[in-house]
Amino acid sequence: MAERKTGRGADRGTSRTPGRDDRSWAGAPEAGRGADGLREPREPHHESLGSRLNWLRAGVLGANDGIVSTAGLVVGVAGATASGTAILVAGVAGMFSGALSMAAGEYVSVSTQRDTERAALARERRELEEDPEAELEELAGMYRDRGLDADLARRVAEQLTARDALRAHAEVELRLDSDELTDPWQAALASFLSFVVGALVPLLLITLSPGGWRVPVTIAAVAGAVAVTGAVSARLGGAGPRRAALRSVVGGLLAMAVTFGIGTAVGGATGM
Q: Which InterPro entries match (predicted)?
């Protein structure tokens, strides 16, 4: 017999999927009626939207990282040498090393999260097999906590358990979609591509601009680009865009100023 649980699954040590919002079924939109005439809660679609927005926001931040890190690198090299070839080689190497580093880190992070999600689902499946009545009462208790009266909470729990017990517990208790777990390969590819797209902005500008205009044009373009990514990221997160854009611009300008100063000092000292 599995130990009977109370509460909302907080002691399970599971992690929530990025972008998964807490949901309240009390007062939720309703759809068709079940066999006993009880209205069944409509499946919440805003969770998928929240997950997509979170991925989009991560992509924007990855592009911002690509812009700032590559801009700092190529501006630093431009401070040390006027050679367009040296700047291009450094920029391309920095772009791919940064993109691969981000992709690898994202893959490891999301793989760990996916393993945690699978372990939580396996534990829930085992508990449902060992003590289904206790699990049913737990599910009804969670609906009572969300504002349903005892009879209605019990009927909702019974209907959802009859349909798909594991899915019902996963969504309400674990905040997981048992049919849509996180994909580490997708996360790694998104991070890689977003970083490369961002890195291309300073890389192309500094290599295609005339010699004397390389650094000024790159700095101006990077400031505008990070202002856009900062504002978009803030919008997706529900925050005000102006302050976020200003922070991004200040951070990008500071990074380029520091690397340009270091490149100029190193280039002057070595006679590059």
A: Ccc1_fam
Distance CA(243)–CA(203), nearest Å, equals 27
Token pair belonging to 97? 């090393």
Q: Write the DSSP symbol of residue 40.
A: E
How many other C-beta atoms lie within 10 A of the C-beta of residue 66?
A: 30
Q: Give the three-class secondary structure for 31.
A: strand
**Residue by residue, what is the 3-state secondary structure of 121-158?**
HHHHHHHHHHCHHHHHHHHHHHHHHCCCCHHHHHHHHH
Helix, strand or coil, per DSSP, at residue 32? strand
Tens digit of each residue's pLDDT (9 = 90 or more) over 130-176: 888 888 888 888 888 888 888 888 888 888 888 877 887 777 777 76
Residue 163 lies in a domain: yes
Residue with tokens 């209907």: 159
Domains in the chain, number: 1
Distance CA 70, CA 197 (A): 11
pLDDT tens per residue, range 210-242: 878 989 999 999 999 999 988 888 887 778 888
Nearest to 230 by CA among 220, 219, 218, 242: 242
